[in-house]
Amino acid sequence: MIQALEAYPTEDVRVAVEPFLRDMSEPVRFTAVTTLFAINNPSSVPALIDALENEESRRVQNRIAQGLAERSWEIPGELVPAGTKTLPPGFAVAGGRVQKLG
Fold first, then answer.
1. Three-state SS for 99?
2. Which DSSP symbol is given to 74?
3. How far is CA 56 from the centre of its chain?
4. What is the pLDDT of residue 83?
5. Can you say whether the dihedral through the CA atoms of 58, 67, 5, 43 is positive or negative?
6. In contact, 53 and 84? CB cutoff 8 Å
């Protein structure tokens, strides 16, 4: 159902999907991240950084980092330390944006 919401890129859908970044199920978290990137609203950056900081699944971490790098969304200054500390290998924050290394 979360994946189907990709077809409705509205603020209401974005707000409704963000809580699923903390779901107990790894596939649900992965789908929530994918859906938020499909909605393509940089207002989700704080929720995505928070999810990255608390995520134990490397697959979800990589999906968040890849999506942030692809979109070049700016990370708010107060979130840069958390984002930098929790990025998976192969990614870094430079100029307030996530970049894929190499």
1. strand
2. B
3. 14
4. 85
5. positive
6. no
